[in-house]
Amino acid sequence: MINKDKNINQKIKDFNIELEQQLASVSSNEQLEKLRITFFGRSGKLTELMDAMKELSLEDKKIFGPALNQLKKESEQNYNNKKNNLEQELRKLEVLKKQQFDVTAYKPGQLEGSQHVLTKVIEQIQDIFISMGYKIADGPELETEFYNFEALNIPKDHPARDSQDTFWFDVPGLLLRTQTSTIQVHQMKTYGAPIAAISTGRVYRQEATDASHDFAFSQYEGFFVDKNISMGNLLATMKTFLQEFFEKKDIEIRVRPGFFPFVEPGIEIDASCPFCKNGCSVCKKTRWIELLGAGLVHPNVLKCCNIDPEKHNGFAFGGGIERLAMIKYGINDIRFLHGANIDFLKQF
Ligand code: FA5
Fold first, then answer.
1. pLDDT (tens digit, 9 = 90+) per residue, 152-193?
2. Residue 139 in contact with residue 125, Cβ under 8 Å?
3. 149-158, 239-248, 260-269 — most confident range
4. Which of 31, 90, 94, 239 has the fewest CB atoms below 10 angstroms from its CB?
């Protein structure tokens, strides 16, 4: 019995010393969990001691029972204190790490972001027109029937509405704009004449997708309203713009009559297809790619914007931004521009 007494007493002491030493060296949650299993787990050191109690006589149990209960209470308390302290320390470390995190640090070999080619083209368009004295204008993508059609001289029964199959909302009269020409109306209504502005943005049309068409694409729209503006001014502006944009590269341009209800007369400008000599899927075997529409602003549009067509007139033009990017950078499918293929995007 005496041997057993010494044995349990010694075991309690050893347990305490060992626990103290190991708790002091713990510095992570993983280490603390290992310690918990070793000392307080189902077959851990504390359970071993408790099991040893079962072997004792009733008399010895009375002596060692309270000592073991005290050991259990105190050791678990020590463990919990360590756990709380460790949690606080780790939290402090985490905060310190975040404070010291250098967002500007360069990691070699890291994939670098770059400007999307369409953003690049948008900036090039804006730069050219800013240099000609135009201001930048913007307008909403969610539009009303009035700004997308009526104000642009396209009345309810006009066939032009069929040609631009529209994404309509459940709310009557609301739609996704089919063209950025809506912006000229917003601008002229707000600022009157004279005005010269360039705008860019997304437009949406319910149409099938192919190498040169998508159902969502980007357009630019420019307009200049002042006094005595002529087709000559429009053609000179378009020539300057296209020469600057294509950096005077050998791109052939052709001008032909075109119909848009909001201009009179109207024209369309095409560029020779840079992808083929005898016709391909991008130019639909015509050798020409339609670049933009333009013309002198229709008097009805000016009137609708409270501008007197007897005093002021002007021109407007608008085209596809993807088309410009495709021709300038030799991209033969518009869908590349709307995808997220990193290898493709990295080239620009
Ligand atoms: C218009 O949208 C007129 N607002 C342009 C305009 C402005 C005319 C001002 C007169 C005065 P159109 O529907 O033709 O016109 O489209 C203009 C250009 O957008 C086209 O020349 C072409 O470059 C581009 N485009 C048209 N449909 C698509 C499409 N589905 N995907 C990509 N680009 C397109």
1. 999 888 776 765 588 988 898 999 999 999 999 999 999 999
2. no
3. 260-269
4. 94
pLDDT score of 238 more than 60: yes
Mutate to test the pocket of ligand 1, among 152, 219, 234 (most ligand atoms within 8 A of CB): 219
Cβ within 8 Å of residue 153, ≥6 positions away: 261, 262, 298, 300, 301, 304
The reported pTM is 0.72
Instruction: Please state which of the four CATH numbers 3.30.460.40, 3.30.1340.10, 3.30.930.10, 3.40.449.10 is assigned to the domain occupying 118-345.
Output: 3.30.930.10
The residue whose two tokens read 């470390």 is 93
Pairing assessment for the beta strands 288-297 and 313-320 based on DSSP bridges: antiparallel
Q: Where are the domains of the chain?
A: 8-98, 118-345
With 0-12 CB in 10 A as exposed, 13-18 as middle and 19+ as buried, what is 76? middle
